[in-house]
Amino acid sequence: MALDVIEDSEQDLDEDVTLFTSLDRNVGWRQAYLVARRVEPVDDSVVGLGQPRARTAYRRISVHEFARRARTSDKRVRAYLRAWERAAADGIVPASASLDRETAVQLPDAAATPFYGEEGYYRGHEAYNMSEARLEAIERESESLGIRPQSCAFVAAHPKAVTAAIIADERTYKAAKKAFEEYERRQQQSDRTDREANRVALEEHLRSENQPEQDGAATGHGGREDESLEGQCSSRVLQDLGAARMSVLNALALLRKHPGALAPQQVAAITDFCETTRSALEDVRDLVATNHPDLSDAALKAFLEESETP
């Protein structure tokens, strides 16, 4: 037997959004509750409006739509939702997906269970206009130093203020200088790690390419064949680098044609790929400069001019 479901009206939804915008920001639990019952949960546990259910679910909209109607940012709405779900995980409030119109929710007492502040469930840095990758990096580094990520995120979100503080205050300058040195140390360590990984990958690749020759390929022409192989190697290297260059140009053209089309995790993946590729290219450059003086600038210039000819 199908259960009757009373559909939540658009007017009810608008009233909740209006209430959210009218509340002072210090009424955190109330605002989080309005977001939790109106924004679509991250999982599929919420029952849709057309499905049978013993109790009545709220009409739900996306984070973006709620932010548009409330004239605020997606990040701020998502920060409220995450705060509510953290409290739900601790058993303080019900999960957002379980909220309905027939069950009264007793909101926590902010004095006993703070919403804001160091002990609160709300993370102010999550509302900043930063990518997920930047926020995760800030949280990791803040945890390692034993400081609040909100403070770190606030500084990262105001680079002009950072610049002014470094110039105006000697103590800030010394702290920044120490941070710069640590940043360079980590970059160098990361670069060494990438180079070592590239070296291992190159050795494995060379072993796999040389395997057929070791299994019985004849080399009866002495130095003449060795010279031919060297020429083939140089030609192949130039061809591969040229193909890589064209692929990068194609990727650049696509990004310029479709700006802002990448998700945060895609941005992080592309950034990481660019860094490791840059390290590999530096390895190629160094190897050529030290072990292959016969690959002259003139030969490379001629190849590049030829590859750029329409």
Topology of helices and strands:
Elements: H1 10-22, H2 28-38, H3 63-70, H4 74-89, H5 132-145, H6 149-156, H7 159-168, H8 170-214, H9 223-257, H10 264-291, H11 297-307
Helix pairs in contact: 1-2, 2-4, 3-4, 7-8, 8-10
**Residue windows where pLDDT falls under 50 for at least 5 positions:** 1-5, 43-54, 214-225
Strand tally: 0
Strand content: under 5%
Considering DSSP H and I runs of 4 or more, what fraction of the residues is helical? 55-70%
Sheet of most strands: none
Structural class: mainly alpha
Q: How many whole angstroms does the radius of gyration measure?
A: 29 Å
Region (Disordered): 203-232
Brief rundown of the structure:
The chain contains 11 helices and no strands.
Describe the structure.
With 310 residues, the protein is mainly α. 64% of the residues lie in helices and 0% in strands. The protein contains eleven helices and no strands. The protein has helices at 10-22, 28-38, 63-70, 74-89, 132-145, 149-156, 159-168, 170-214, 223-257, 264-291, 297-307. Mean pLDDT is 76; it is low at 1-5, 43-54 and 214-225.
Which key phrases capture this entry?
310 residues, mainly alpha, 11 helices, 0% strand, elongated, disordered N terminus
